[in-house]
Amino acid sequence: MTTEEQRAAAPEEGSEDFAAMLAAHDEASSGQVQPGQKVKGTIIAITGESVFVDVGLKEDGIMDRKDLLDADGKEIAGQGDTVEAWVVSASPQGIVLSRSMSGSGVAALEEARDAGVPVEGRVSGTCKGGYLVEVLGKTAFCPGSQMEATGGDAEGPVGRTMQFLVTRVENRGRNIVVSRRALLDRERRENLDKLLETLKPGDMVEGRVTRLAPFGAFVELAPAVEGMIHLSELSWSRVGSADEAVSVGDPVRVKVLDIVTNEKGQTRISLSRKQAEGDPWQDVPARLAAGSIVQGKVRRLAPFGAFVEVLPGVEGLVHISEMSWAKRVNKPEDVLSVGDEVSVKIKEVNPETRRIALSLRDAEGDPWQDAEQRFPVGATVEGTVESNGKFGVFVNLAPGITGLLPAGVIKSSKKPELGRLAKGDSVSLIIQNIDTGARRISLTYEGAEAAPEQGSGGQRGQGAGSWKQHAVTGAPVTGIMAQALQKAMQKSSKERS
Fold first, then answer.
1. What are the residues facing 225 on neighbouring strands?
2. Which of 220, 249, 224, 244 is nearest to 234 (CA)?
3. SS3 251
């Protein structure tokens, strides 16, 4: 081969580099987006029946102008607006976009299947194993397992128009299968990948409650991407079910507790609503002071008392001995029920141990505090018989105030009706003696002779034991004489034992 022939056969200088650059350009242009990928761009021009969209690549995307029309034929976007669309095809000649595959016929369905572009379909009814979907002029089948969740309502999707992925086109269009779930899963993966690029444990994020479960609530953090708030993380208050704290559709602020991807590639995001709100005990010392009376809600009962929520997530204990001045309480449920709204007095606050001592009876007031003014000696009072025993008749004069008509007074009286008094009977009597320290009142009848000097408590000392059933556990002993008498009785009891 001559020198001239060699030169003719050799490629022109630089042509190989140009070809390589062109190939690289083609690869770069088409490799940045793939058919079936969802992109966002800005409409830069609308010409005739075409819409040009800047999607951030060297080539602009182009879509059919009909894609911008709503059901009424009005354009939903114009020049300068941002739109989302699916990539139908990508090549050096351009990027074809579509908001949803349109057209009709088997060819359009096959193109949608191959490109992975969603098609718009209307669920026309149910059938065995799934749903019938009218799509691109054909009737397709969507298996029940491939339809989005509808809260257990099989008829829920019927009549709705939504987007699907075409998964199968066979037998010249006689067998068409579509999937709503596949599209949602694909969107979820894409959105999850974007979310995980920035999301990390400890972050505070905003979301929306999408559904409730027996164990908690699900919150949408990004389109089709959910995290879960466990029941124990919904509120600082005790909740038995998720609907006690949130409802579907509620906007919530949550803290990301953990992000875990298992072996199957499933990612679970654990969230906390209560930790995003902050520890309620931080404000307790400033908001709750000993001696103040506050409103609360009974959250739970125990054999020894009741737990009352006085601030969101802050509970105190009403001991059984602090429940009533009026009667001896054997079981908390005799006085309170879960859910009751009550007034309680704060006796003690201990932020270190996170314990608050409460009193139900102190909030109502000690009925004996002004008993001497309300029941002066010699006054005539009306009462109701509580019980009748060997020591006499106990008569309720007011809530928490009980007096005794001694058996000796009844026996010596000339009124036979006193001996026939029964529980529930109304009776009019005279205050003979009152001892607020011992919380005892002795009664007599009108016209009775003056009684001898009374012993402690005004019951001549003989009926002290009978008062046990009317005494209130934990009732304070007031007055110097009453305290001295109590100590003397305790000393005497020890000596006898």
1. 222
2. 244
3. strand
Give the three-class secondary structure for 276.
Answer: helix
CA–CA separation, 210 and 217 (whole Å): 8
Per DSSP, 410 falls in state H
Give me the amino acid identity at 376.
Answer: P
What's the pLDDT tens digit per position in 399-453?
A: 778 889 998 888 888 788 888 888 888 988 988 899 888 888 999 888 776 554 4
Which residues lie closer than 8 Å to 248 by C-beta, 6 or more apart? Answer: 209, 210, 211, 212
Q: Which two tokens stand for residue 362?
A: 């102190």
pLDDT tens digits, 288-344: 888 898 999 998 898 999 999 998 888 899 999 888 877 788 899 988 999 899 999
User: Which three-class secondary structure state does DSSP give residue 261?
Assistant: strand
Count Cβ atoms below 10 Å from residue 333 Cβ, excluding itself: 12
- pLDDT tens for each residue of 33-52: 777 777 888 998 888 888 89
Check residue 231 and give left, alpha or beta (phi > 0: left; psi -120 to 50: alpha): alpha
What sign has the CA pseudo-torsion 288, 291, 295, 296? Answer: positive
Residue by residue, DSSP assigns 309-368 as EEETTEEEEEEGGGS-SSS--SSGGGT--TT-EEEEEEEEEETTTTEEEEEHHHHH--TT
**DSSP code of residue 370:** T
Please give the average per-residue pLDDT across 354-361, as a whole number.
Answer: 90
Q: How confident is the model at residue 458 (pLDDT cuts 50, 70, 90)?
A: very low
Rounded distance between C-alpha atoms, residue 293 and residue 364, angstroms: 10
- In sequence order, what DSSP letters do the residues of 69-109 get, joined into one string? B-TTS-BS--TT-EEEEEEEEEETTEEEEESSB---SHHHH
pTM of the model: 0.50
DSSP states of 188-227 as a string? HHHHHHHHHTT--TT-EEEEEEEEEETTEEEEEEETTEEE
